[in-house]
Amino acid sequence: MPVTVLLVDDEPLVRAGLRAVLEAQPDIEVVGEAADGAAVIPLVRRLRPDVVAMDVRMPLLDGIEATRALLRTVEEPPKILVVTTFENDEYVYEALRAGADGFLLKRARPAEIVHAVRLVAEGESLLFPASVRRLAAEYGDDGGNRAARDVLERARLTEREAEVLRLMARGLSNAEIAARLVVSTETVKSHVSAVLAKLGARDRTQAVIAAYESGFVAPG
Fold first, then answer.
1. What is the mean pLDDT of residues 18-44?
2. For the residues 81-103, what does the mean pLDDT come to?
3. What pLDDT score was predicted for residue 143?
4. Residue 149: which domain range?
5. Same domain, 20 and 71
6. Other CB atoms within 10 A of residue 85 CB
7. Residue 219: inside a domain
């Protein structure tokens, strides 16, 4: 089955460019478009896309608020890929905090766009981990988020789960973590699932953000 994508951007040329790149792939299908975040929820409910590629800055409802609303109101929400002009942008970090699964630069090469959509859809690796670390270092609470610290403390991660979370934060995929720890990929998947459940995180991106915000992992 192809990965289905909903494009949300107030610039028609951006949407057209993304559509052209993605629909050139046999395993990706663009199922709809919207010009503002306010249209996301009804379209997601009707089209059930796997991934929403959404501009972070839009005139009526921006990508941050649209992400919050989507995750709050839609059961089994799609993956959310924030599309942005600037990489080092507080808006991007706030979108990740709000629940976005990753971000993509509008100037990205076609191969990078396709890779980002596939990676976010699979959910087995962190997209652009070095960039997420830089954003966390500049805009995160750097261990000062009491709520995030409380979550980590209550999670009571085992030693192996803590090790897996640190490797997730470095951007390693499940297969790479398995090779590093000399265990099976299925074992790693079980550990990742346990970490997400204990942290109350919907995916590894949110788990990594919590790790940075709590000071469990240093973003620098």
1. 95
2. 86
3. 60
4. 130-212
5. yes
6. 14
7. no
